[in-house]
Amino acid sequence: MTCKHYKIKVEGKVQGVWFRKYTNDKAQSLNLYGFVRNEPDGSVYIEVESDQEDKLKEFIQWLYQGSPLSKVEKVKILREGPCQNFEGFEIQR
Asked: Residues 20, 24, 31, 85: which is the catalytic one?
């Protein structure tokens, strides 16, 4: 199975609501690799990869729900690309 890599932008009320922490926990529970970070425009940017497509789909579906206090308006898959071979999943500050 080949590795898939996604760049994702999540818009809505996603900063100051523990979105990054919950995203990190979800990704780690699914054994996904990449990172999550806040963007200056109020969105959250994620790069995620795995060779398990079902886990990636579950993660992307979860993003529409997000953390308990978040209000997700849009999940945009910016593009697929080659895997970066991340070591784990982390929160970038």
From this structure: 20
pTM of the prediction? 0.95
Backbone angles phi, psi at 16, to 5 degrees: 75, 15
Catalytic residue among 24, 31, 37, 38: 38
20 is catalytic: yes
Whether 38 is a known active-site residue: answer yes
Domain of 24 in residue numbering reads as: 4-92
3-state secondary structure of 19: helix
Measured CA to CA, the distance from residue 77 to residue 59 in angstroms comes to: 12
pLDDT tens digits, 16-53: 999 999 999 999 999 999 999 999 999 999 999 999 99
What is the C-alpha separation between 1 and 73, in angstroms, rounded? 32
**Number of domains the chain contains:** 1
CATH number of the domain to which 51 belongs? 3.30.70.100
